[in-house]
Design brief:
The chain is α+β, with helices and mostly antiparallel strands. The protein has three helices and four strands, in the order αβββαβα. The protein has a four-stranded mixed sheet with strand order 1-2-4-3, sandwiched between helices. The longest helix is centred in the C-terminal third of the chain and has 19 residues. It is globular, with a radius of gyration of 13 Å.
Length: about 110
């Protein structure tokens, strides 16, 4: 599944706006979520998953897939959200990763309402 274009942060200008003026900042062991309100009627997602956080392309793609899936199943308030992968354990199971991401989005959802 692909996120529609209107629900993604697409350029560095949009990412920079979130980094410069964050409204929310949540941390988990593996992730940092930064969010800034937007003037749209929907939320948008941006992901930063670098090689330092996940050396294997397979793991990086799994992280992105789980982030997109969790984001897609939520009706979040209108925010631009950037999720940064800080570090991952290569042996992490997909279910553990999904639980971590879901708890991150759940906490954001409860704080942003």
């Amino acid at each position: 599944f692909v996120l529609p274009k209107h629900t993604r942060l697409q350029n560095s200008k949009q990412f920079d706006r979130v980094f410069r003026n964050p409204t929310y900042r949540l941390t988990r062991a593996q992730f940092l979520l930064i969010a800034a309100s937007n003037n749209l009627n929907h939320s948008r997602l941006g992901m930063v998953v670098g090689r330092k956080a996940a050396p294997s392309a397979v793991i990086r793609n799994r992280i992105k897939r789980v982030l997109r899936e969790s984001f897609r199943h939520r009706a979040l308030a209108p925010f631009d959200i950037v999720v940064l992968a800080k570090s991952t354990n290569v042996n992490d199971e997909k279910a553990d990763l999904r639980d971590t991401v879901d708890s991150l989005f759940n906490e954001f959802e409860s704080k942003s309402r």
